[in-house]
Specification:
Helix content: 55-70%
Strand content: under 5%
Structural class: mainly alpha
Largest sheet: none
Number of helices: 17
Number of strands: 0
Shape: globular
Radius of gyration: 20 Å
Distance between the termini: 38 Å
């Protein structure tokens, strides 16, 4: 059965997301985060460079400086190896600062890409924001600070957008190439391969051409996976080093443990307020995924897989970070909200902004912000 690929109709209820709005709003949000971090640095007597090395950022810095070892094998190589190469060429020692600059540049490229594609009417609903609110929903996602800090998300975001746009534009070769690079960037890359392949096939006419598109994207995605396994083998002696590194992490070891996640049934799940908030956000995104799937099954599948992979951990404590790269979901939800009363739009935006700034501050002060 051929996947549905309904093209988005223009939304007239709210002003469209112009190129200037996308870029200026990005600059404002990034400046707000930077100002907040500088204030935390000054008020708490923290070195700004230390602040940029919180949580996984510190792990990336260690990989870049000293290479992989132990639990660090759990982190996918494309981002740290890219920053490592740049640091070597430029002679930069503060790799967390270089990572911040690199991630900001990658996000800017993503914003320009979206700005260029926003006027196309042949793209499926969700791939570009049709309204300002669609862009703001994404830009104010709880953990959007990762897009301009020392994290892998901006690189993955850019590559996944290039893959999905290429698949939807009848360019399966490019789509497969970028999807394969996503596989080298984070575990959600495998879902980008699936979504890109289905998008590419859905744009073709005839069974033979659809099969060809599926095979091209799938083969290039598989090449990305094999490259990842080869890297792990050559560097560590085991192609499954990333799985061995996760042996000490909490994980759902049965189907029952997966379903227990929904009711806090696993012993490692916390019911403290920060985790209850993440639980609520997970459900909101899950509902949004269901609505997206009704309009765009392929993008809904991508969103569902990207959220569902957290259930293998038996908790959803990482929902802010896992969800923030699923840009079609946020674009879709924002565009839908743009059709609601203005007072409701305002309330939702205020709530998003408050949660976004609170999460960015939490990262700066060392609280769990993923």
């Amino acid at each position: 059965m051929r996947p549905s690929l309904e093209v988005a109709a223009p939304l007239e209820e709210e002003a469209p997301a112009s190129r200037a709005f996308l870029l200026w709003s990005t600059a404002v949000v990034f400046a707000a985060h930077l100002t907040l971090w500088l204030w935390v640095s000054w008020s708490r007597g923290l070195a700004f460079t230390d602040l940029l090395n919180r949580w996984d950022s510190n792990h990336y810095s260690t990989i870049i400086r000293d290479g992989y070892s132990g639990m660090l094998w759990a982190f996918f190589p494309l981002y740290p190896m890219t920053v490592r190469a740049l640091a070597s060429v430029l002679g930069v020692e503060r790799v967390q600062v270089l990572g911040m600059v690199f991630s900001s540049a990658a996000f800017l490229c993503f914003a320009v890409l979206v700005a260029q594609a926003r006027e196309r009417e042949d793209l499926p609903e969700g791939l570009v924001p049709r309204t300002r609110l669609g862009w703001l929903f994404f830009l104010l996602a709880p953990a959007s600070y990762v897009f301009h800090s020392h994290h892998t998300e901006s690189l993955f975001l850019l590559l996944s957008a290039l893959a999905l746009f290429s698949g939807a534009s009848r360019r399966p070769g490019w789509g497969g190439l970028f999807a394969g690079l996503c596989v080298l960037t984070r575990n959600q890359g495998a879902f980008v391969v699936v979504a890109t392949a289905l998008l590419a096939a859905s744009r073709e006419e005839g069974g033979t051409r659809r099969l060809r598109a599926l095979l091209v994207v799938g083969a290039l995605g598989a090449l990305g996976a094999l490259s990842f396994l080869a890297f792990e083998y050559l560097a560590s002696g085991s192609p499954l080093a990333f799985l061995h590194a996760q042996s000490g992490w909490h994980r759902a070891d049965s189907v029952a443990a997966v379903f227990k996640t929904f009711v806090f049934g696993n012993p490692w799940q916390s019911t403290r307020s920060p985790y209850l908030l993440r639980y609520a956000v997970f459900w909101l995104l899950l509902i949004g995924t269901f609505l997206l799937a009704r309009r765009q099954p392929v993008l809904g599948l991508y969103s569902g897989l990207s959220l569902g992979v957290m259930l293998l951990q038996g908790e959803v404590a990482n929902v802010f970070r896992f969800g923030t790269v699923v840009f079609p979901l946020f674009f879709f939800l924002g565009d839908r909200c743009a059709r609601r009363p203005v007072w409701l739009q305002g309330l939702v935006l205020v709530a998003l902004l408050a949660l976004n700034l609170a999460t960015a501050r939490g990262y700066a002060v060392g609280r769990w912000a993923y």
